Amino acid sequence: MFPLNGATSAKEVNGVNKVTNRGTHPILATVPYYASPVWRRLKLIGPQAESYIAWKLGRGHIFFWHDCWMGDTTLADQFLQLPHSSIQVHDFFDDIGWNIDRLIQIVPLTMAEQIRSIPITPHVDDQIVWTDTSDGRFVTKSAWQLVRTGSNIQAVFRPRLPFSVGDCGRGLYQWMW
Known about the structure:
Distance between the termini: 60 Å
Radius of gyration: 21 Å
Strand content: 5-15%
Largest sheet: 2 strands, antiparallel
Number of helices: 8
Order of helices and strands: HHEHEEHHEHHH
Number of domains: 1
Structural class: mainly alpha
């Protein structure tokens, strides 16, 4: 699997998060009152796009509960009844691998065993993967399809100009008279 273009690792993606959201997962972050209209609209479609983002585990600098690194869904979605913090995956590593004692403090033993079976590669950055393409690469076309067919298209694109020449002519006519 290949990373998204641009931000290729959790370090790069979370670096932006730490500056803008102070270590909070982007889905949970609030948009400050001074944010630009573009950021406000992107926040609206974030949950829709987030379902197409997965992570290939490396150093573990991704969110334990809110990033999709264990399959098709996040741990937060699997365990709605458990409290979810902004803890990161690497917080469950020790010198030899997974810290099973720490894991069973927050997830059931069966899930802790599944997590322990996932290999850790601490010398490699976590890799972000766009799941809507066969090779995991982000392509604008697939993101556009997601936005275009989604219910939030008006949240992203607010038309300020007429859509057709006819609309333009009617607007000009109304303005002149």
